[in-house]
Amino acid sequence: MVNRIHSLGGYIHEYQKSVANPEAFWAQQAENFYWKKRWDKTLEWNFQGPEIKWFLNGKLNLTENIFEKNLYTHGDQEAIIWEPNDTNEETRTLTYAELYAEVNKFANTLKRLGVEKGDRVAIYMPMVPELAISLLACARIGAVHSVIFAGFSANALAERINDSSCKVLLTADGGFRGEKITPLKEIADEALESCASIETVVVLKRTGSDVNMHVGRDIWWHKAVDGQSGDCPATEMDSEDELFILYTSGSTGKPKGIVHTTGGYMVYSAYTFKNVFQYSAGDVYFCTADIGWITGHSYIVYGPLLNGAKTLMFEGIPTWPDAGRFWDIVDKYQVNQFYTAPTAIRSLLAKGNDYLDGKHLASLKVLGTVGEPINEEAWHWYHDHVGKNKCPIVDTWWQTETGGVMISPIAGVTPTKPSFATMPLPGIQPIIVDGEGKELTGNSVEGNLCIKYPWPGIARTLWGDHERFKETYFSTFDNFYFTGDGAKRDEDGYYRILGRVDDVINVSGHRLGTAEIENAINEHPLVNESAVVAYPHDIKGQGIYAFVVCGELSTGGEEGIRKSIKQGVTKIIGPIARPDLVQLVPGLPKTRSGKIMRRILRKVAEGDATNLGDTTTLLDEDVVEKIIQGAQVEVKV
Ligand code: WTA
Question: How close is the Cα of 448 to the center of ligand 1, in Å?
Answer without folding.
Answer: 14
